Amino acid sequence: IRKCDVINCCSAKLAEDLRWLPDPVINKEGDHYLQLEAVIDTDTTDLNRPSAKRFPRTKDDRARQVDYFLIDDQEEQRKNPSNFTAQHARMTVDCAECGEPRVVFSKNRLSERQQITILTGLEEYTCGGHILPPDNPVHKSVDVKLSVNCGDPVELAYYSSKLGRADICCHCGGMGATQNNALKEKFKTVLPMCADCTKNGLLPITARPYGTK
After folding, report:
1. Which domain of life is it from (predicted)?
2. Rg (CA), the chain
């Protein structure tokens, strides 16, 4: 956008002349991010993006055999766990950062007006946050899991509620994922995985093994 009438004075820069900000890159020691000067104008990936890191579960979580997609202690202290079941899943929202789908829960069916209000806040939603500000009248009517981080698997309720596509990869959210037939003979719940995540060594997510109550 020119700010004066002199053609060669305030002409906007061409896109190819702009310097794009690189993704964060960890140093060789793995304990610090490289300075901007060291990575600018180089090809980078989002593998070291802080919001994409996975945080290990606590010892208590492992002892209780609670997987990521079940309610953890943090939410149990503030929410009724029964709110986060497939029965109360009403819609899905994609994270603005990682793009993975997350489930919006509500104990009651949402009215058309409530759905419209929620849709206005979906564009800015990121994993672990609220979809609406606290002063919004619909804020207390809907819930999303606050313990979810970017990079965490897609929730079990996403598949069991049948709100979204059944071929979404549980790890990356990509399409064309399939269930492991061998694991389906051992577990009642086997979440779909894509070929890339399988090739990268990510483990299948399973629940409810046969032969147990």
Report:
1. Eukaryota
2. 22
